[in-house]
From TrEMBL:
InterPro entries in UniProt: HTH-GbsR_regulator, HTH_MarR-typ, MJ1563, WH-like_DNA-bd_sf, WH_DNA-bd_sf
Identification of the protein by name: HTH-type transcriptional regulator
GO molecular function: DNA binding; DNA-binding transcription factor activity
Domain of life: Bacteria
Domain HTH marR-type: from-to ranges: 22-80
Entry keyword set: DNA-binding, Transcription, Transcription regulation
Family the UniProt entry places it in: Belongs to the GbsR family.
PANTHER family: HTH-TYPE TRANSCRIPTIONAL REGULATOR MJ1563-RELATED (PTHR38465)
Length: 191
């Protein structure tokens, strides 16, 4: 498959961003290719298109399957496995959040909960105990918030995201223009 300049730039950039997010560059580029082209591709085609070793493609496809970001599909008359990704950006976002929450966030919360229940924890300084408990409270609150956000439909989630700036202004308040310390509370339209 011949890549256009636009698709090449998208795929290269996605690979660079993947490394910033802690994901292998080839894994990110393969996902970007599948997302950008919007159709199932077999491993050989991916390897040739990205000029990446077939073994690297195989390992990267396994990683993407482990993340639940791609699935295997088949083409009538062709025995090869083809790979495709969701073309719904909101579903991809939710998948990444769910997977990262399961792999990174939940083990940390479990560890913090275990720490505060161990008898040795009481031997730590009161300040250290407070910091660990506060960290646990914050992490648990973020977990509840993330779970609620993941339950929303994409349309509702987009509205919540757009509403975020208005909520921040409401919570912060805005100083009056005449220099008075009173706060103006902005009007937030109901959706």
């Amino acid at each position: 498959m011949e890549l256009s300049e636009v698709s090449r730039r998208f795929i290269v950039h996605w690979g660079e961003m993947g490394t910033a997010w802690g994901v292998n560059r080839t894994v990110s580029q393969i996902h970007a290719l599948l997302y950008f082209c919007g159709k199932p591709l077999h491993a050989e085609e991916i390897s040739e298109t990205l000029n990446v070793a077939r073994s690297n493609v195989s390992n990267s496809l396994k990683e993407l399957q482990n993340w639940k970001l791609i699935r295997v599909t088949h083409v009538l008359g062709d025995r090869r496995d083809y790979f495709e990704t969701s073309l719904d950006v909101w579903e991809l976002f939710r998948t990444v959040v769910r997977e990262r929450k399961e792999r990174e966030y939940e083990p940390t919360v479990r560890m913090l909960r275990e720490l505060v229940t161990q008898p040795e924890f009481e031997h730590e300084s009161p300040d250290a105990q407070d910091r660990v408990r506060e960290t646990l409270r914050l992490m648990e609150s973020l977990g509840v918030w993330a779970d609620e956000m993941l339950r929303l439909t994409p349309n509702t989630l987009e509205k919540v995201l757009r509403m975020g700036a208005s909520v921040q202004k409401f919570v912060r308040g805005t100083p009056k223009k005449d220099g008075d310390d009173e706060l103006d509370i902005p009007f937030i339209p109901m959706m």
